Amino acid sequence: MAFSKHHLYQPTDQIIAGYAHAFGHAARVIIIKQLVVMGPSTVQSMAVYHPIHKESLSDHIKILRHYDLVEWRESYPYTIYSAHLENIKKACKFLVDYIEVIRPIG
């Protein structure tokens, strides 16, 4: 297995790539939308709206947690997730600013 060269890129480019990855699957986009619209939710309550298994949904939430786009708290036996609105806005700003830079003029 080769070693990652990710760290050799500019920090801003790494951040943009991370956020693009976080938003890079329809399930994760819907999870964020659900948490913003419906408020704090469990995997069980969100799973009703997804055509994937709860385990897969949990994996997608784990990615969103990694990028700090969702917050969580334990309420035994459940984990309750909520949208981290400040970080979602920050992620969107990074992505929009990037698109503005690469968008062709004309």
In which order are the strands of the major sheet placed? 1-2
In whole angstroms, the N-to-C terminal distance is 44 Å
Q: CATH H level: which superfamily?
A: Winged helix-like DNA-binding domain superfamily/Winged helix DNA-binding domain
CATH architecture descriptor: Orthogonal Bundle
Domain HTH arsR-type: 8-103
Protein name: Helix-turn-helix transcriptional regulator
InterPro entries: HTH_ArsR_DNA-bd_dom, WH-like_DNA-bd_sf, WH_DNA-bd_sf
GO molecular function, one term: DNA-binding transcription factor activity
Properties at a glance:
Helix-turn-helix transcriptional regulator; 106 residues; WH_DNA-bd_sf; Arc Repressor Mutant, subunit A; globular; 5 helices; mainly alpha
Descriptive notes:
With 106 residues, the protein is mainly alpha-helical. The protein starts with 10 loop residues before the first helix and ends with a helix. The chain contains five helices and two strands. The protein has a two-stranded antiparallel sheet. The mean pLDDT is 94. The radius of gyration is 16 Å and the shape is globular. The chain has a single domain, classed as Orthogonal Bundle (Arc Repressor Mutant, subunit A), CATH 1.10.10.
